[in-house]
Amino acid sequence: MKLKFMLLLTGLILTMSTTAQKRPLPSAYVDSKDAAERIANFREKSDSIFSRLGIRTNDSIFLPINSFNEMIKYFDSVHKFEGIRIVFVQLPNTVSSPVWKNQLSILFSPIETKASPVYYYIPDGGRFSGKDNQVPDKEAATWVSNYATNMLPALEKTIYLDDPENRIPNVSNVLPSDTKYMSYCRKMIEEFADEIRYQDSLHPKSDPIDGIKFYFSAYGDTGILLADGKKKYRKRLMIQMAFTKKGSNFEIDTTGRDPKTNLCPIEKMHSAFVNKYDNGQLCPANCP
User: Fold this and answer.
1) What is the Cβ-side half-sphere exposure of residue 200, based on CA atoms within 13 angstroms?
2) If you placed Cys at 147, which of 19, 90, 169, 199 could pair as Cys (CB 3.0 to 4.6 Å)?
3) What are the residue boundaries of the structural domains of the chain, listed by start?
């Protein structure tokens, strides 16, 4: 599998110039080699879930571009969102599609100041039509709880238990855990939207980006290697995203394009902001 462009987020359609000028790569760009390795790393987690539950997990979720864009517009008009949280869940056996019964999946939750979490579910290849996609609070809590109770124990067998970054912060006994959710600030979402427009400006209107594929992935043995030599998030569950055209992953042109720096660096955020935007770390003690 060759993937030239994988992201840890996706986003919002905004007004931008359509001139085909070189521009920096989005800050969440991942090269094809690392992206493919992280997808392959998830197989160990999938095998662990199968050993515990007898469930062979799907490896990705496809969202048509119109579905995701409609969701973002809705989040903007109804929630005035500051970011998006992608929450890992285990679906119930009552979902309409047989291949998704009891499966690992994701919910989308708009982040807004002083508001209780609201959760939305878009089935694989499905449409977003606003409130019809909202999952009732009690039902969403069950899906989140099922993931924590059934799948997390299996996933925890695949991580480095002695890694401080793989332990829940602000808990007295510092419990180990795999990822519960990932959050992205609005700036990163907007940046990704600009990239969609930019890519479409380079190609015929008859050949636009038509979807986004969400891959279940995992960091490798080195996790994220920092400048000081520290390794963070080793073997941790994560999401990567790829543009698609006609069902196949679309490779963007990276020639002469340097990636931007992270638009939402954790170390520069106010502590209250960090509690909402974990940006891929374990959720804090007050997580849903």
Assistant:
1) 20
2) 90
3) 32-276
